[in-house]
Amino acid sequence: MNPQGISIKNENLLFDTVEKYRKAVENHTFKEINKITCSIGASIHNESNEIQNTIKEADIALYEAKNSGRNKTIIYKK
After folding, report:
1. Which of 31, 40, 62, 65 has fewest C-beta within 10 Å?
2. CA dihedral defined by 62, 64, 68, 70, rounded to 10 degrees?
3. How far apart are CA 35 and CA 31, in angstroms?
4. Cβ distance 52 to 76 under 8 Å?
5. Other C-beta atoms lying within 10 Å of the C-beta of residue 56
6. Among positive and negative, which fits the CA dihedral 65, 51, 4, 1?
7. Model confidence over 3-51: pLDDT tens digits?
8. What is the pTM of this model?
9. Which SS3 state, helix, strand or coil, does residue 40 take?
């Protein structure tokens, strides 16, 4: 892992990786709140693109996940 986070360039691998985290949250029982779910949006960063644009793309994917039923993983499609 690089110091800035996980670097994944393949959409399927990215989906599988973040989906694992979403399912871990969904299946965990938290002491104070019991069960929760989460939605995750992600995007693959292209070195020719500004990092701010990649973050915006991930944010768009997150809102798509929330607006389409929640408790989902969505990868931004370019």
Report:
1. 31
2. 10
3. 9
4. no
5. 13
6. positive
7. 466 788 899 999 999 999 999 999 999 999 999 999 999 999 998 999 9
8. 0.85
9. strand
